[in-house]
Design goal:
This protein is mainly α and about 180 residues long. It folds into two domains: about 55 residues, Homeodomain-like (Arc Repressor Mutant, subunit A, Orthogonal Bundle); about 120 residues, no CATH class. It is built from ten helices and no strands. The longest helix is centred in the first third of the chain and has 24 residues. It starts with a helix and ends with a helix.
């Protein structure tokens, strides 16, 4: 019985990873459940079994990629420098949720799921972590800086944000993030 549970967990994880990768490359609308199942090496019926539908799978894949603790576990002192380094050097193999979020905007249902997930899993906990003054505005500012950075690093690469990053761009990112943590907007 324990082996069956481990196999189910591995299968579910393989489907989630394949979905994250597909939704990040092709977007929600252009991704088929059969494509995800093939990439995961499973029968397409298992997608329905574990996630109910393509929308349910999208919600689970996006929620798994949205991890605010990657940000809130960074010490406040030196936060800007540490987060800029994390952004520039990658996320330890984790899927960046920005492409999934961006591509979801083309589908009303996926967009609604994305908005709820970002609000519930990132914006609200980030504002709570930041605390007063203006926690909601500072959380929104941090999300805007991060999404702008990753848009021009991943989706529409600008030379200043590529590779190890231009030093001036890196200083801007560090200063912008630190200012938001320290209470400035």
């Amino acid at each position: 019985m324990a082996t069956r549970a481990r196999d189910a967990d591995r299968t579910r994880a393989a489907i989630l990873l394949a979905a994250q990768q597909a939704f990040s490359r092709q977007g929600f609308g252009a991704t088929g459940v059969r494509d995800i199942a093939a990439a995961a090496g499973v029968n397409p019926a298992l997608v329905s079994r574990y996630f109910g539908s393509k929308l349910g799978l999208f919600e689970a894949a996006l929620s798994a990629a949205l991890d605010v603790t990657r940000i809130t576990n960074v010490p406040r002192e030196g936060f800007g420098r540490a987060l800029a380094r994390m952004f520039a050097e990658g996320r330890d193999g984790a899927v960046n949720p920005l492409p999934m979020l961006t591509f979801a905007a083309a589908d009303r249902q996926a967009q609604a799921i994305a908005l709820n997930a970002v609000r519930d899993r990132i914006a609200v906990p980030l504002a709570q972590w930041l605390g007063p003054p203006d926690a909601d505005a500072r959380a929104a500012g941090m999300m805007a800086v991060a999404s702008g950075f990753f848009t021009y690093r991943l989706l529409y690469p600008l030379p200043a944000f590529e590779g190890g990053m231009d030093q001036g761009a890196r200083r801007w990112l560090e200063d912008s993030l630190q200012r938001l943590v320290d209470g400035g907007c």
